[in-house]
Write a structure and sequence with these properties.
It is a single chain. This protein has 190 residues and is of the alpha/beta class. It has a single domain, classed as Vaccinia Virus protein VP39 (Rossmann fold), CATH 3.40.50.150. It has six helices and seven strands, in the order αβαβαβαβαβαββ. The protein has a seven-stranded mixed sheet, sandwiched between helices. The longest helix is centred in the first third of the chain and has 14 residues.
């Protein structure tokens, strides 16, 4: 059914994000997730997009303009490690998306790093609304990718189960280094 991580994440986003939601694309890349999020939140919703590379922000902005969705988004050319500086305190995020690794078709030496990714995830889960979800696609086939994934998995295993549900989706019969998807959900208050 889903042979690619991006297809599965987009399916989960469509099932989760609602009109009026506030969401985050912490690693815009070429803008595909940002565009989908902007279409899902509707005119009353808001998408915050971040990427450390100017070319990623430019590609995302172009995609949003062409789709007529740019007015729903604020884009920031900065590391996702500073998401806490971009999102206002008390922001209730319905969803956040991370694609770790490097920008496809770009300089493969510019990659996400374990420390910045953990810092970003910590800031994001503090701002998740009850029922809010973080989808993180972890790519391990590049230098540093395995360490980053292992660090996030170790950190997420320590999240209190009374407040968070953590799952991992992976392809187990693929050659090479298939990506896996970390899903962190803030439990609804009882």
């Amino acid at each position: 059914m889903f042979t690619r991580a991006t297809s599965l994440v987009h399916h989960m986003l469509r099932a989760h994000v609602r009109e009026g939601d506030h969401v985050l694309d912490a690693t815009c890349g070429n803008g595909y997730d940002t565009e989908l999020l902007a279409s899902l939140v509707g005119a009353k919703g808001r998408v915050v997009g971040m990427d450390i590379q100017e070319e990623a922000i430019a590609a995302t902005r172009t995609r949003l303009v062409e789709a007529g969705l740019v007015d729903r988004c604020s884009l920031h050319c900065m590391s996702h490690a500073f998401v806490g500086d971009v999102l206002e305190e008390g922001t209730g995020l319905a969803c956040a998306v991370f694609n770790l690794g490097y920008l496809p078709g770009s300089d493969k030496s510019v990659i996400t790093r374990p420390q910045s990714s953990r810092r970003a995830h910590e800031a994001v889960i503090d701002r998740l609304s009850p029922g809010g979800v973080v989808f993180t696609t972890m790519y391990t086939g590049h230098e540093g990718g395995q360490d980053e994934a292992e660090g996030l998995l170790a950190w997420s295993r320590q999240l209190p189960p009374t407040h968070f549900s953590v799952a991992r989706h992976e392809w187990i019969n693929q050659n090479g280094h298939p990506p896996s998807i970390l899903v962190i959900t803030r439990r609804a208050k009882r």
